[in-house]
Specification:
The protein is α+β, with helices and mostly antiparallel strands. The chain has 17 helices and 35 strands. The strands form nine sheets. A seven-stranded mixed beta sheet has the order 2-3-1-4-5-9-6, with helices on both faces. A six-stranded antiparallel beta sheet has the order 16-15-21-12-13-20, with helices on one face. Strands 27, 32, 33, 34 and 35 form a five-stranded antiparallel beta sheet that branches. Strand 28 (480-488) and strand 29 (495-505) form a beta hairpin. The protein is globular, with a radius of gyration of 30 Å. The chain starts with 10 loop residues before the first helix and ends with a helix. Mean pLDDT is 90; it is low at 1-10 and 683-687.
Length: 687
């Protein structure tokens, strides 16, 4: 690498590029990564998904399924520039792997399959990258595919993502090569014209710089080699979204793409700086992280892997300072630093040891158990309380109740699940006390199936699964009062506590409020927490159907005590029973979770899909045209009605439909469902 200059950013930092390949499944991201590694001389022959021989899909489960399931890191050298490349999974179930990659790069490259066009994940990734203020580019892959209409696809890209989408090159010779349109003013292409594409690019770029606008108007053109600074500004501001055409299969455009990455994409000094914050909540203040080798180290852990044999590995992007072997680093607000024993760059499954990491480098350290996703690493104690602006992850709502096959293995199951959750921010596990179930939540059925396969294959742990009980809730619809006197005399000292309270409904989503309005010490202050404890016990266990209560205010306004017999346990019992009595008079109802549903399917199946959703108490909010004869249906439905929905969708769409859900809100269940749930609870009560 070039040598370091004094002060500010080094020439080494400017000779770095970071790029995440994102977008839908089957767009060819992994094959494109192979083609880039091959062209750069990193590998001697391109691997294949079918043979399981690619650099990035090295996990045995990925090889078996022939799909990327994890974000994989690679690096290569081209034209004296180090390029860090992240290959991400395209399935919606695995955005917990693909979204964090956006935190480690200057550029998000959204890969589009020329044969299938703009798919849902491409749109989402463009949106997520824009929200993180990343430079964006679009790579149209498989340009040599049968029946592709690249001119129509380019028009669709501009309609979907804006007129800022302009081709840097155009396919030629029937998709067997590409011709540059930024530096070239003339040339022959399969459609459009190089001259028109060149003019459009130059006009788009010079718009961000008034001096260049004047030159362009006066001279009629500007030499593209002079446009580096305004080009980077246009990329930073989203004023230009370059489109590149490529075929990973026949190599068309691969060498040109490497040149684009080196010559035109931003280095760490040119991209938008990361959004670091110091402090929490509304008090958090933005701070600057600059790619300066001489400053304190600031690095962000965007991926964690846990291997049963290697242990925990944290993969991070260096944003500021220079990190070397033997560096002492703090993790977040931790007071005790750890020593960097070995510093690695990843090449798929291989760990390449390196002596140092500069701003812009993506590296890893192993066997540091305190590392976790989203941790900020730093080498100065005063830099604690710094974190990156959080990503807006989808909420995992697909649940599966899970238990070990062998009795007594519960603790080991929790430990293994925690390791798997450490690797994926979109997995969640919780123990539901009301149903005594351990439930793992993911983004879809495939997400959870992969988790179960990892449990079995990697950790040799067998579990039983079943659909979880629906997370119903209870609430009230009217104010009411409750009273209970707890009096117990058993020989010696007795128990006495009396509570009067009132319950009131709160707006949906407000939670629970406890208010003390006792006057005159009728309940001494030291017993008010005991009353609240009793109320919270009732809230947790439910009143009418055995589900936690939500959106309730409880106001304790009177009571009685005894100077000798009043004890904490007496007021716990009195508070709980007074609250139960009040809730029963407050027109209680059961609530069910409602989820937002987005279904993408062939338009021929729309009638069946909307009819089926309506039959499941769903509400359709709208439909939009997808691509390649597909439609997108958006609506809401009760989560209880979507059990096994993918199987029904497969039947209606011949396996071509897919859907995503995310939690929206709670709504009252139908009266017959409430009666059924209450009846089941009474039976349990009697048992």
């Amino acid at each position: 690498m070039p040598s370091t200059s004094q002060g500010g950013a080094s020439t080494a930092t400017t000779a770095l590029r970071t790029l995440a390949l994102v977008g839908p499944a089957a767009a060819g991201k992994t094959s494109l990564a192979e083609a880039l590694l091959l062209k750069a001389g990193v590998i001697g022959a391109a691997g294949s998904l079918e043979r399981g021989s690619t650099v990035s899909d090295f996990d045995p489960l990925e090889r078996r399924m022939q799909h990327s399931l994890n974000a994989a890191l690679m690096h290569l050298e081209h034209a004296d520039t180090r390029i860090h490349l992240i290959d991400t999974p395209g399935a919606a179930d695995f955005v917990g792997q693909s979204l964090p990659a956006l935190e480690a790069v200057e550029t998000a490259a959204v890969v589009i399959n020329a044969q299938t066009g703009i798919e849902m994940m491409a749109t989402r990734m463009m949106d997520w990258a824009a929200r993180r203020h990343l430079c964006r580019m679009i790579i149209v892959n498989k340009i040599d595919g049968q029946g592709v209409n690249l001119q129509a696809l380019l028009t669709q890209l501009r309609e979907a993502f804006g007129k800022e989408c302009l081709p840097l090159n155009l396919p030629a010779d029937g998709g067997n090569k590409v011709v540059d349109c930024f530096y070239n003013r003339t040339g022959s292409a399969d459609f459009s014209s190089v001259e028109d594409a060149h003019r459009a690019l130059v006009e788009q770029v010079v718009e961000v710089d008034a001096a260049f606008v004047d030159r362009y108007l006066n001279d009629g053109d500007v030499d593209a080699s002079e446009l580096h600074a305004p080009l980077e500004q246009a990329l930073r501001e989203g004023h230009l979204i370059p489109v590149c055409f490529v075929s990973a299969r026949n190599g068309a455009g691969v060498a040109e793409l490497l040149d684009v990455i080196v010559k035109l994409l931003p280095n760490p000094t040119e991209g938008n700086p990361p959004e670091f914050l110091r402090g929490e909540g509304t008090e958090a203040q933005p701070i600057s992280a600059t790619p300066d080798l001489a400053k304190h180290v600031l690095a962000h852990v965007f991926k964690v892997t846990v291997d049963p044999y290697v242990g925990k590995m944290g993969i991070f992007r260096v944003h500021q300072g220079t990190l070397t072997k033997d560096s002492q680093l703090y993790i977040g607000d931790g007071r005790k630093p750890f020593k960097v024993g070995h510093l690695f760059m990843m090449q798929g499954k291989d760990h390449v040891e390196v002596p140092r990491a500069l701003p812009g480098d993506i590296c890893a350290v192993a066997k540091v158990e305190e590392l976790h996703y989203d941790a900020v690493l730093h080498d100065a104690a005063e830099d604690d309380h710094i974190h990156l602006k959080p990503l807006d992850f989808p909420v995992p709502v697909h649940g599966l109740a899970i238990e070990p096959k062998r009795h007594g293995d519960e603790q080991r199951m929790w430990e293994i699940l925690q390791k798997l959750i450490d690797e994926d921010p979109c997995l969640k596990v919780e123990h539901v006390a009301t149903t005594n179930e351990t439930i793992v939540y993911g983004l879809g059925e495939l997400h959870l199936r992969v988790l179960l396969e990892r449990l079995r294959d990697v950790y040799k742990f067998e579990v039983n699964t079943r659909p979880p009980s629906i997370a119903y809730r209870e609430t009230i619809t009217a104010p009411a009062e409750g009273h209970h006197r707890h009096k117990k005399q058993t020989g010696g000292a007795g128990q006495f506590g009396e509570v009067y309270l009132r319950v009131e409904p709160l707006p949906r989503g407000a939670g629970f409020e406890f208010v003390d309005q006792v006057k005159g010490g009728t309940i001494p202050g030291q017993f008010i927490p005991a009353v609240e404890k009793g109320v919270r016990e009732a809230i947790a266990s439910g009143v009418i159907a055995g589900y936690p209560l939500v959106d309730v205010r409880c106001v304790v306004f009177d009571g009685k005590h005894h100077s000798v017999d009043s004890k904490e346990i007496a007021f716990v019992t009195a508070g709980r029973k007074a609250f139960i009595a009040a809730v029963k008079e407050a027109r209680p109802i059961v609530l069910e979770p409602i989820v937002n549903v987005e279904i993408t399917a062939p338009d021929a199946a729309m009638g069946d899909i909307t009819g089926d959703l309506s039959a499941k108490r769903g509400l359709i909010s709208g439909t939009t045209n997808g691509v390649a004869g597909s439609m997108i249906v958006r609506g809401q439905a009760p989560l209880s009605e979507l059990s096994g929905y993918q199987s029904r969708l497969n039947a209606m769409t011949s396996g071509q439909g897919r859907y995503t859900i995310e939690f929206s809100h709670y709504d009252p269940v139908p009266p017959n469902t409430q009666q059924q749930l209450m009846g089941q609870y009474k039976v349990k009560d009697e048992e």
